[in-house]
């Protein structure tokens, strides 16, 4: 049966002149962005199918007349900046696809027009309007600010000629090194080199050796090269180490008297087998009313590291410890990170704690935050704690099993309230003394890991709520604080996930409340577990998510489903946690709100350093994977998809 469509209102025909006027008005108003046909059609209210061809033709005509610019295929932008001088950031690539970033838009720069600008340099350019069917191009006319940067590679020496063969994706050319600038480097050495000169008429830049890392292929040289590549320190300054060694534990009767004493309460740490920096411990005891008291005790690092001291400045600069396959590069010198601050068993330690009263259902009845002193009774590895959970027997089994039971109830409630359950396996290696990988395996999170995680999440959330949650009846705004925030997923990426998941027979909600969307993602992750589609869809789900960052502007943590969240539990290895400890101390003492702008700068730096550390960790894993497979050429293995582009 045919439906009668005669009563439908027809879209008013818009003349080409009016279309052109609307397009120009919209693009000039939004002059800093580029838009595709659909976005323009929606913005100028020309979405009817009958208007499609006219709109496309007008866009082509405006671009051909250089009234607007087609910055890339099908994306248009007002061209008020074209043909004029602009300032942007230069992006150099070893594949020759150089560009300059103007208003978040990449414009191609041919090598002949680059003035040999390096990646990250601030440059002044002239942009030519695009010819039909081609992208616009830019020409560098001045390097305003040359970014200080280094390159890592291998020295090659032949006769009187020496050069660095770079590993960089930002430079295709080898760097010529004069004899007097080799710093003792020899053929086959892994080195760090700085470019000192690159003349217009020369194909190759000239440089000088900054440091020799060791022989190519040697484990330490390659790990140091990875750190240097991401601008991360691979040595500790001697003056910082010296300052750390002067610090004493200082656990005096006077100091103990100023803190809540937990030395008589059963307390233990649960950490990886190879961990040395124990920055969190758990205590548990039954209260007279039948409830349980659980203490989350965190190393009191800021008691020892004074603001503005040489130690503090170094920690702030590093912002995080870096965990490579075969080593940890600590944020704080080992005298502090593995010694005085580490919550080692049978040693009195100063801590900053979040203490909870929980009922049988793991509901928080009451909580408090304050400085404490503890003495850990036992150091558990995750494997040892897991064995107790699975067998029901072992040291402090009653306490471990109780904490496990409470953690599982906390976890179930968290997912019920809309948290996302990402549980991806991590690549791990067994390596020998020289750093050579003997075995590669996947490490999955088990109940012992989740036990610790759940109480750390509870402590972090409670600390953030203490500062950030408005008090009932209070008219004053919450004081400035450091939050760990996680934005909502990218709608386009979420729609892409839903589209691909549908082809495998799964449904993902792309609209509705965060709780509804997250429940559908959790259902997907549960349903694909162990199937051939697991890796593909799990990766797409993760990539649809925003990156978590540190900031003073609280928007909540989408993935955890928490309106308030921070990082309080790892001050030995994360500088934001030290910032949080200092703010807590200030606000517990009724101090004034901290300087927001200064804290935000530190947050931004910490987020950037966290990302660099994660990139270095991934690079070390890739290096060890390749090293492991080198001895297996010709063998056939079963593979899984590890990335989707």
Quick tags:
alpha+beta; 23% strand; single chain; globular; 7-stranded mixed β-sheet; 5-stranded antiparallel β-sheet; 645 residues
Question: How would you describe what is shown here?
Answer:
By secondary structure, the protein is an alpha+beta fold. A hairpin with a 2-residue loop joins strand 5 (99-102) and strand 6. 33% of the residues lie in helices and 23% in strands. Helix 4 runs antiparallel to helix 16 and helix 12 runs antiparallel to helix 14. The protein has a 7-stranded mixed β-sheet. It has a 5-stranded antiparallel β-sheet with strand order 6-5-4-7-8, with no helix packed on it. It is globular. Mean pLDDT is 90; it is low at 1-9.
Question: What is this structure's SSE topology?
Answer:
Elements: H1 16-29, E1 35-36, H2 37-43, H3 52-64, E2 68-72, E3 75-78, E4 85-91, E5 99-102, E6 105-108, E7 122-128, E8 137-145, E9 150-158, E10 161-166, E11 175-176, E12 189-197, E13 206-215, H4 219-229, H5 238-245, H6 253-257, E14 260-261, E15 267-271, E16 280-286, E17 292-299, H7 310-318, E18 322-323, E19 328-329, H8 334-340, E20 348-358, E21 364-375, E22 378-381, H9 382-391, H10 397-416, E23 426-431, E24 437-443, H11 447-468, E25 483-485, H12 491-503, H13 514-527, H14 534-543, E26 549-551, H15 575-588, H16 596-630
Parallel strand pairs: 14-21, 15-22
Antiparallel strand pairs: 1-3, 2-3, 4-5, 4-7, 5-6, 7-8, 9-10, 9-12, 10-11, 12-13, 15-16, 16-17, 17-20, 18-19, 20-21, 23-24, 25-26
Helix pairs in contact: 1-3, 4-16, 10-11, 12-14
């Amino acid at each position: 049966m045919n439906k009668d469509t005669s009563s439908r209102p027809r879209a008013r025909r818009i003349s080409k002149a009016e279309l052109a006027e609307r397009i120009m008005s919209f693009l000039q108003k939004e002059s800093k962005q580029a838009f595709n046909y659909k976005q323009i059609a929606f913005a100028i209210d020309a979405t009817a199918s009958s208007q499609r061809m006219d709109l496309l033709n007008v866009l082509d005509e405006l671009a051909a007349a250089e009234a607007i610019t087609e910055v890339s295929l099908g994306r248009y932008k007002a061209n008020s900046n074209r043909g004029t001088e602009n300032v942007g950031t230069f992006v150099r690539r070893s594949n020759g696809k150089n560009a300059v970033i103007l208003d978040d838009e990449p414009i191609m720069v041919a090598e002949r027009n680059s003035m040999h600008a390096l990646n990250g340099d601030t440059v002044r350019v002239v942009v030519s309007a695009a010819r039909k069917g081609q992208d616009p191009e830019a020409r560098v006319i001045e390097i305003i600010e040359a970014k200080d940067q280094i390159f890592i590679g291998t020295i090659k020496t032949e006769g009187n000629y020496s050069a660095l063969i770079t590993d960089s994706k930002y430079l295709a050319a080898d760097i010529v090194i004069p004899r007097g600038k080799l710093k003792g480097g020899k053929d086959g050495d892994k080195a760090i080199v700085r470019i000192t000169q690159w003349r217009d008429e020369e194909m190759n830049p000239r440089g000088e050796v900054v440091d020799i890392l060791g022989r190519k292929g040697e484990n330490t040289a390659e790990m140091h090269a990875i750190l240097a590549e991401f601008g991360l320190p691979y040595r500790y300054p001697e003056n910082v180490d010296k300052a750390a060694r002067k610090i004493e534990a200082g656990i005096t009767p006077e100091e103990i008297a100023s803190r809540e004493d937990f030395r008589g309460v059963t307390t233990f740490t649960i950490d990886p087998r190879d961990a040395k920096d124990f920055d969190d411990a758990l205590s548990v005891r039954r209260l007279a009313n039948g409830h349980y008291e659980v203490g989350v005790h965190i190393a009191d690092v800021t008691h020892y590291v004074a603001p503005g001291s040489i130690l503090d400045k170094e920690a702030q600069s590093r912002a995080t410890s870096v965990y490579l396959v075969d080593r940890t590069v600590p944020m704080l010198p080992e005298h502090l990170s593995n010694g005085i601050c580490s919550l080692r068993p049978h040693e009195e330690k100063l801590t900053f704690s979040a203490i909870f009263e929980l009922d049988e259902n793991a509901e928080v009845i009451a909580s408090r935050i304050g400085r404490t002193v503890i003495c850990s009774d036992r150091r558990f590895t995750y494997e040892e704690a897991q064995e107790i959970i699975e067998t029901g027997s072992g040291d402090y089994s009653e306490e471990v099993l109780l904490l496990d039971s409470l953690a599982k109830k906390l976890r179930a409630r968290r997912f019920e309230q809309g948290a996302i359950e990402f549980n991806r396996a991590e690549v791990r290696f067994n390596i020998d003394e020289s750093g050579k990988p003997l075995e590669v395996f996947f490490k999955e999170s088990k109940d012992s890991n989740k036990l610790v995680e759940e109480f750390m999440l509870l402590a972090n959330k409670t600390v953030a709520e203490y500062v950030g949650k408005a008090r009932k009846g209070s008219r004053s705004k919450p004081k400035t604080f450091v939050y760990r925030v996680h934005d909502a997923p990218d709608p386009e990426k979420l729609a892409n996930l839903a589209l691909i998941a549908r082809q495998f027979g799964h449904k993902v909600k792309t609209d509705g409340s965060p709780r509804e969307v997250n429940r559908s993602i959790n259902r997907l992750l549960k349903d694909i577990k162990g199937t051939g589609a697991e890796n593909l869809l799990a990766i797409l789900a993760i990539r649809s998510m925003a990156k978590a960052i540190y900031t003073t502007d609280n928007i909540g943590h989408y993935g955890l489903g928490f309106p308030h969240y921070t990082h309080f539990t790892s001050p030995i290895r994360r500088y934001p946690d030290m910032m949080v400890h200092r703010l807590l101390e200030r606000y517990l003492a009724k101090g004034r709100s901290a300087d927001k702008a200064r804290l935000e700068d530190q947050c931004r730096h910490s987020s950037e350093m966290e990302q660099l550390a994660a990139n270095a960790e991934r690079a070390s894993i890739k290096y060890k994977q390749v090293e492991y497979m080198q001895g297996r050429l010709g063998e056939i293995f079963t593979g899984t998809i590890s990335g989707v582009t």
